[in-house]
Amino acid sequence: MASRVTSNFAVTKVRLGGESGIEVTQVDTRADTVAGEEPLEIRVGGQTLTTTMRTPGHDIELAHGFLHSEGHITALSDVAEARYCAGSTVDGMNTYNLLDVDLANDNVISLSDLRLTLSNSACGVCGTSSIEDLNKKSRYALPTIPIDPAVVAQLPEKLRAEQKLFRKTGGIHAAGAFTLDGKPIVVREDVGRHNAADKVIGHLLLEDRLPADDLILVMSSRASFELVQKAAMAGFGMLVAVSAASSLAVETARETGMALVGFARADRFNLYSGTLA
């Protein structure tokens, strides 16, 4: 699995400069490391639930986090078994791109639930219906967390310090769960920001750390509705992103009482929802 997390390719690096600023001043061909991206089909009781493009690794966490974020499971005890299947092979070798999950007590997701999950994974019908659906499925009351600027200012760099694959590739997202005073609990990387968040949530679920009401979810990406949704379903009271927040993310954070921070830097950030300590 580790060998598929990154791949090396010969690339041509072109530098511009000169008096015009757009003249080709250097052309160099060398090996470059890029982030791995492969499909993962997640099945429940033999039914295909979703296929996501992800960076191989921590797939069990990803599946648990996804099922929890979509409201299909509430605890580790809801899952009887998660195993790779041989349905996806290349040259007779298992690619480990097909994961089948068996729920406890033969609680197989119905086709109606399956259609709902696929719809939610893409987008909601509208902002209002998306927030209402989240409020119906949410199982945790979110804590009110006063925002400590000194802690928030440190989180982007602390997340970056744990991004080993980003340092190699420059093209991969990260999600991290941090304590309220800024200590990292778990950091996961993936080409998909939603997958990175699900891996973190899945890890916390497997460690019996949900609800995450004493933790902060930190993202290397923008803050979308789906990330706020996943954070809320896991009980996070604060989401910190290094980039912008979408309108529906802000509306959802305010509706659920989640503290939402965007454009987090060492010397500044935007506070979209919540109050300063």
Automatic annotation (TrEMBL):
Keywords recorded for this protein, A-Z: Cytoplasm, Molybdenum cofactor biosynthesis
A UniProt-annotated Pfam family: FdhD-NarQ
Xref: InterPro entries: Cytidine_deaminase-like, FdhD
Active site feature: C123
One of the record's GO molecular function terms: sulfurtransferase activity
Main location class: cytoplasm
SUPFAM superfamilies in alphabetical order: Cytidine deaminase-like
Binding site for Mo-bis(molybdopterin guanine dinucleotide): F263, A264, R265, A266, D267, R268
GO BP terms in the entry: Mo-molybdopterin cofactor biosynthetic process
Annotated GO CC locations: cytoplasm
Subcellular location, record wording: Cytoplasm
Gene3D superfamilies: 3.10.20.10, Cytidine Deaminase, domain 2
Job of this protein: Required for formate dehydrogenase (FDH) activity. Acts as a sulfur carrier protein that transfers sulfur from IscS to the molybdenum cofactor prior to its insertion into FDH.
Family: Belongs to the FdhD family.
HAMAP family, per the entry: FdhD
The protein's name in its UniProt record: Sulfur carrier protein FdhD
Species: Corynebacterium striatum
Organism lineage: Bacteria, Bacillati, Actinomycetota, Actinomycetes, Mycobacteriales
The encoding gene: fdhD
